[in-house]
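Q: What residues go here?
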């Protein structure tokens, strides 16, 4: 939970702060604090008022944090949902912690709920929260939004508890995904694995429940981001960068240092660009911001080493006394400076191997000067590619192909840049963060959930269907 009065770094935090500031309500979740094992205070509820938003937070014990957050959420669900079975670690203790913490959250939340409250659950850390709430007698309307991709059936099926996870989605009235591709994966999974019936109007019946499922691509607050671009810090940054790179072409990448973002592949494509198109030597400069993320996890430490080695070797091989091809920063940049940086870049490289949506792509478009806009090179595997087909779409695994497209972006004539930018801006405006919030909440309000909510309580699966690593073998 982030304080909506403060500006936050993550895309999810920004979108939720916006949603809550508009409607008021309660933001419930983990405080971000870890209390020592055995210390009192574990699971204690803290409430705090932030404008019209109540923040209600729970601390976690070290053991729960490690098993629930680092373990099941980020060492199982994050890699598998991003199609990285090779990185998933199905350790037995993780699932127990994941269930325990979701149950703890449900217990704490139950005491705070009013009968007409609408509950909107966010993301992969909380998939079973609604089914825990239903088991405790909660009849409120509950919606769920998955910010990351949902993989195809046979990838999902690698998770020992996949059946239990997907069944838990049916405790909601509405389940939202980022893209049509994710929705299709959901629909195929439930029909193939759970014998679900598609009832029409995006409704599915399985496990004795009916759920509505839809694609609700998340957006940004375009006006707010443009105001940030025009503000003093944004403009200062823009002018400084323009001056510094007046004789060069600036390329930009901004993301958390995460293996889903395709950073090593991007560095290799940039190296190929320098090899194949030597006119870029002493000219093209890639600023890569890789903000620190989940640093206490092994896969992230490996990625950090790989990036340092790649950037070092590219700079060592191609750099000159007065020019370095890559400026790699493993640091967070203040949000107020980001738009100026976006605006100064001729090309943005947004090339994840898999991404639920990707808000950086949308921020880059919003920050451009429409008379002289930069070019967006976007991975076809980002959810955003479904909406932003006027970007230059690439397959980030194809190192040579991506290098060619980057060259095309660097060479693109003004007229084409303007035409593409106009279409992209139209798209991100039409489906901005306000549209996202409203369309999800309207769909949730419109779900005909009476048959479900009239049931006195959501029946817990019998013990033999109940999932634990033990009975899943
Ligand atoms: C998840 C899904 C989905 C990045 N570095 C810095 C910084 N950022 C900001 C960006 C942007 C946000 O963080 C990143 O959002 P993304 O959407 O690109 O990616 P995830 O963090 O992986 O978000 C994603 C999203 O949830 C929302 O549903 O789109 O697919 O993976 O706003 O600007 N901000 C600052 N300094 C940095 O160094 N201030």
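A:
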């Amino acid at each position: 939970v982030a304080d909506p009065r403060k500006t936050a770094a993550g895309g999810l935090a920004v979108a939720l702060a916006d949603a809550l500031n508009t409607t008021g309500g309660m933001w419930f979740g983990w405080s971000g604090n870890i209390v020592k094992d055995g210390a009192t205070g574990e699971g204690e509820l803290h409430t705090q008022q932030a404008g019209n938003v109540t923040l209600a937070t729970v601390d976690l014990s070290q053991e729960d944090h490690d098993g629930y957050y680092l373990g099941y959420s980020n060492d199982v669900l994050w890699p598998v949902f991003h199609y990285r079975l090779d990185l998933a670690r199905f350790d037995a203790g993780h699932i127990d912690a994941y269930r325990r913490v979701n149950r703890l959250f449900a217990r704490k939340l139950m005491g705070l709920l009013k009968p007409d409250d609408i509950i909107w659950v966010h993301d992969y850390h909380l998939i079973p929260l609604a089914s825990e709430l239903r088991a405790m007698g909660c009849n409120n309307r509950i919606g769920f939004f998955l910010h990351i991709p949902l993989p195809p059936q046979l990838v999902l099926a690698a998770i020992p508890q996949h059946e239990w996870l997907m069944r838990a989605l049916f405790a909601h009235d509405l389940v939202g995904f980022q893209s049509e591709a994710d929705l299709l994966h959901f629909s195929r999974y439930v029909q193939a694995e759970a014998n679900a019936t598609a009832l029409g109007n995006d409704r599915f019946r399985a496990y004795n429940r009916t759920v509505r499922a839809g694609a609700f691509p998340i957006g940004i607050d375009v006006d707010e981001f443009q105001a940030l671009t025009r503000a003093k810090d944004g403009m200062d940054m823009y002018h400084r960068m323009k001056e510094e790179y007046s004789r060069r072409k600036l390329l930009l990448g901004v993301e958390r240092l995460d293996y889903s973002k395709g950073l090593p592949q991007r560095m290799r494509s940039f190296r190929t660009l320098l090899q194949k198109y030597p006119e870029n030597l002493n000219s093209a400069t890639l600023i890569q911001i890789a903000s620190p993320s989940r640093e206490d996890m092994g896969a992230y430490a490996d990625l950090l080493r790989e990036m340092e080695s790649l950037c070092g070797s590219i700079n060592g091989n191609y750099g000159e006394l007065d020019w370095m091809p890559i400026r790699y920063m493993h640091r967070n940049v203040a949000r107020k400076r980001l738009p100026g940086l976006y605006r100064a870049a001729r090309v943005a490289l947004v090339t994840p191997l898999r991404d639920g949506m990707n808000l950086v792509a949308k921020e880059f478009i919003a920050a451009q000067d429409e008379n002289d806009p930069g070019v967006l090179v976007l991975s076809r595997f980002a959810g955003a590619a479904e909406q932003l087909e006027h970007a230059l779409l690439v397959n980030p695994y194809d190192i040579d192909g991506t290098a060619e497209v980057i060259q095309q972006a660097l060479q693109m004539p003004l007229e084409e840049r303007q035409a593409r930018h106009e279409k992209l801006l139209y798209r991100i405006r039409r489906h901005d963060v306000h549209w996202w919030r409203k369309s999800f909440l309207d769909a949730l309000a419109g779900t005909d959930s009476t048959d479900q909510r009239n049931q006195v309580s959501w029946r817990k699966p019998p013990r033999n269907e109940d999932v634990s690593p033990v009975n899943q073998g």
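A: Context that may help when evaluating the design: The mean pLDDT is 91. Residues 9-12, 14-15, 147-148, 218, 254-256, 289, 291, 332-335, 338, 355-360, 363 surround GDP-alpha-D-glucose (CB under 6 Å).
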